[in-house]
Write a structure and sequence with these properties.
By secondary structure, this protein is mainly alpha-helical. The chain is 66% helix and 0% strand.
Length: 67
């Protein structure tokens, strides 16, 4: 008797592979951007991040509506 295929496992493996590929592409893009900035002589100030940092701070501390 043949075993049933585990499609859930296969789907999860495809998703992980896709995620890994996407992260590698984002890392490559980030490195290219940094290299272009370094070549142009633009220096970022330490501690100043893009909008991602402020969004995560807002999610971490939601406003209290209990009064």
């Amino acid at each position: 008797m043949a075993r049933r295929a585990n499609y859930g496992f296969e789907k999860r493996q495809r998703e992980l592979k896709k995620k890994k590929k996407k992260e590698a592409k984002a890392e490559k893009k980030r490195l290219m951007k940094e290299a272009a900035r370094a070549e142009a002589g633009i220096v970022e100030e330490p501690g100043i991040e893009g909008p991602d940092e402020t969004e995560s701070a807002r999610e971490a501390d939601p406003p209290d509506d209990t009064a």
